[in-house]
Design a protein that fits this description.
By secondary structure, this protein is of the alpha+beta class. It contains three helices and three strands; from the N terminus they run ββααβα. 10% of the residues are buried.
């Protein structure tokens, strides 16, 4: 982030059968400003980017990285 690199978190929501990509800077801001030790599902839906599932690539996060970071 400080050195021009991209950083993100891949998060698997087993209960909802969903995968999300969360930008590291958004997660760090949340972590520093929140009094909780867990992330709410609503926050994940609002700030995360859903990774679509398909049979060939069950977790095709690179497509989402390209969209989020405009690579």
């Amino acid at each position: 982030m400080r050195h021009g690199a991209i950083a993100f978190i891949l998060l698997r929501m087993v209960l909802y059968d969903e995968d999300y990509l969360i930008k590291a800077d958004e997660f760090i801001t949340y972590y520093r400003n929140c009094n909780r030790k867990s992330i709410t599902y609503d926050w994940i839906k609002e700030h995360g980017h859903l990774i679509r599932y398909n049979y060939i690539k069950p977790c095709d996060y690179l497509k989402v990285v390209d969209e989020v970071y405009e690579l």
